[in-house]
Design a protein that fits this description.
Elements: E1 4-8, E2 14-21, E3 25-31, E4 34-40, E5 49-55, E6 59-60, H1 64-71, E7 83-95, E8 98-107, E9 110-125, E10 132-143, E11 162-176
Antiparallel strand pairs: 1-4, 1-11, 2-3, 2-11, 3-6, 4-5, 5-7, 7-8, 8-9, 9-10, 10-11
Length: 178
Amino acid sequence: MTRTVWNVDTAHSEIGFSVKHMMISKAKGSFDDFSAEIEANVDDLTDSKVEVKIDVSSINTRQEGRDEHLRSADFFDVEKYPNITFVATDIKKKSDNNYDVTGDLTMIGTTKPVTFDIVFEGQSKDPMSGNTVAGFSGETTINRKDFGLNWNAAVETGGVLVGEEVKVHVEIEAHKEA
């Protein structure tokens, strides 16, 4: 089967995350600047090529002070490690539109295998451009300490400021290249 190039429409896509904050709530955020190389046949996604590159300095938790701290050497150290990357290595179909997409996730110089649970949301014609558009959504959970994101602080009531498990979610709208 022939793969087609798909271009991510970042205005209609998101790479976001949530993590426990103070053991009682969740801090949420996203990365505003990212790109992806996708080559896929939507009739059989198991043979797809997927590579994602995230500009870590674009982190946005809606609190500038926290964002600056996350960019620092305490966390992502963007001066030394400006990007997070994900390169798919294996894609398995679980059901009609559901896939396990396993790949190498690299953050702050550490690469680990991660599997995303991805749903192919379907495809449609864009009424404005006439282009074919496909949608994908998915999620995974990682342990931030596996990637060397170890900074934390104790809270007065016991526990820590930042949880170890980070839920990552993706919403991708991609346009078929003409």
